[in-house]
Amino acid sequence: MPYRHARSVNVSGTSVKPLRSVLCSPGMLGKRLTASRGRAGLTQEQLAAALGPRYDQAMVSRVESGQKTLRFEGVIKAATELDVSVDYLAGLTDDPAPAARLAEELARERARKTELEDSGALARARSRAGVRAAEGSPRPHLFARPGIKPVPLLQDAGIAAGAGGDADHEHVLSYVPFRDNWLRSHNLNAARCVVIEVIGKSMEPTIEHRAVILVDLQRTERRQNRIFAVRDADGPIVKRLRYENDNWWLDSDNEETDEKNGQRIYPARRWPEDASVLGQVMWTGRTL
């Protein structure tokens, strides 16, 4: 793949281009950089400042449009700042998550699966014994271990990704263990978080139907391009918030369109006057 600034190095009769020149095509890098910057809520000026003194807004603009590419060290800085992997920016994978984050998510998913299986076993035992769910409710200290903090798993919370759901009958079904150091690294207080099941497909592929989410009830200030649990007249819903044209919008990640009219099935809608933020979604777990 020829590039204007690439210089070939002859090694044992084989022409080899420097790694920084053949990492990826400018077009792919530009598309992935634009998408990642948008998800991070950064402007081109802010990204340029994070990349270092040799970059400015015009340079970032040219990279995103495919007119220029980044040096290898620039790609590394961009990946770090945007919290994505170098492989994603290079077009080698469609998953933007860095390897370290994927490993953490896998560990949390395994812990969640074990906890939910334990909760199912407890529910079946209660049913066989004829004990009402209100009796013998799980106690958080039974789930706490050194380095582990329990977060309540709410049953019948009705958080919807689509139309609003009914959250009037929330109660604690069980507790999901989270590593204390992970909670601290994200400034999360387990006592002010809840784990809830999401019903609906409007936030796919980010949050799948019947996936569980961790909601931080302390983070109620609206933030650009972040996912929040919101309560409006229809009930609690999960949406991505966007600020455009002097208005906040409730948007969906699912861009599926109607085959007949070509319109989005889950269109963005303006922030309702009666809406309030319940908390920011900080994590999701799902079945693979």
Kindly, what is the distance between the CA atoms of the first and last residues, rounded to a whole number of angstroms?
36 Å
What's the name of the CATH homologous superfamily of the largest domain? Umud Fragment, subunit A
Biggest beta sheet summary? 8 strands, mixed
Oligomer: single chain
- Classify the secondary structure makeup into a structural class: alpha+beta
Backbone shape: globular
Helix content: 25-40%
Please compute the radius of gyration using only Cα atoms. Answer: 23 Å
CATH architecture of the largest domain: Ribbon
Chain-averaged pLDDT: 76
Q: Which percent range describes the beta-strand content?
A: 15-25%
Q: What is the count of helical runs?
A: 8
Q: Uncertain regions: pLDDT < 50 for 5+ in a row?
A: 1-22, 118-136, 160-170
Major sheet: order of its strands? 4-6-7-12-8-9-10-11
H/E element string? EEHHHHHHHEEEHEEEEEEE
Structure description:
With 288 residues, the chain is α+β, with helices and mostly antiparallel strands. The protein has two domains: 9-97, 434 Repressor (Amino-terminal Domain), CATH 1.10.260.40; 138-285, Ribbon (Umud Fragment, subunit A). 31% of the residues lie in helices and 24% in strands. It is built from eight helices and twelve strands. The chain has an eight-stranded mixed beta sheet. It has a two-stranded antiparallel sheet with strand order 1-2. A two-stranded antiparallel ribbon has the order 3-5. Strand 1 and strand 2 form a beta hairpin. Helix 3 crosses helix 4. The longest helix has 31 residues, at 99-129. The radius of gyration is 23 Å and the shape is globular. The two termini are 36 Å apart. Mean pLDDT is 76; it is low at 1-22, 118-136 and 160-170.
